């Protein structure tokens, strides 16, 4: 499991406690890698404290801050598990929702993604109305310009087979919040099967997305991806 984190000291300890509680009850082997994306608080120290007691917790830290897309890409390309989940540090999607993604992979999907707008999804705590409406408008733009047929590209709870993760993220270029729709567009370019799965979700305060700053950047990235074309998107990125 990959957890991108930028200055998450306030909630990271609770998150890691919950992940340990959940995974220890599962029959499979697991690791949790926190990617500290240039954090300047105690994010890395908290992970080190967990790792000292349980080596299944791992830390990847670097400076300076590069963006969530860079953090997720770094973790996914270095992970070695058969299935690779990335989840936001706030656990807005509770970790037990993984049990809804796994059957989609077992049924043949290469990627299973949590999706909030699906009828069967349960939004237990909703975003402020303005964020929800802007999110819907942005997703319409994503569907129009890039990833048709997927209702929620931005939910931070996505499960990949190892092969799919490496095929996709080795080709990703975007370091910021646009990485979600870039990854799904590349997955479509590669002919990978993406399953959209209903989930429970609770809005958490403290989002790192600043709409007036990041919204225009994401729209710019969306147009850039469309203009690049499939051939250029599929050129593997040297690492």
How would you sum up this structure in a few lines?
The chain starts with a strand and ends in a 6-residue tail after the last helix. It is built from eight helices and nine strands. It is α/β, with parallel strands linked by helices and 239 residues long.
Structure description:
The structure is a single chain. The protein has helices spanning 9-24, 43-53, 68-78, 98-106, 129-145, 162-169, 179-189, 211-233, and strands at residues 2-5, 32-37, 57-62, 83-87, 111-115, 122-125, 157-161, 194-198, 200-202. It is an alpha/beta fold and 239 residues long. The chain has a four-stranded mixed sheet. Strands 1-2-3 form a three-stranded parallel sheet, sandwiched between helices. A two-stranded parallel ribbon has the order 6-9. The longest helix has 23 residues, at 211-233. The mean pLDDT is 91.
Tell how many strands the DSSP assignment holds.
Answer: 9
Main sheet: strand order: 4-7-5-8
Structural class: alpha/beta
Total of helices: 8
Assigned CATH superfamily:
Spore Coat Polysaccharide Biosynthesis Protein SpsA, Chain A
Task: Please name the CATH topology.
Answer: Spore Coat Polysaccharide Biosynthesis Protein SpsA, Chain A
Reading off the top of the CATH hierarchy, the class is best stated as Alpha Beta
As a percent range, the share of strand residues is: 15-25%
Distance between the termini: 21 Å
Helical fraction: 40-55%
* Helix-strand sequence: EHEHEHEHEEHEHHEEH
The CATH architecture name reads Alpha-Beta Complex
Major sheet characteristics:
4 strands, mixed
User: How many domains is the backbone divided into?
Assistant: 1
Which overall shape is indicated by the principal axes computed on the Cα atoms? globular
Provide mean pLDDT, rounded: 91
Computed CA radius of gyration, to the nearest angstrom: 17 Å
Low-confidence stretches: none
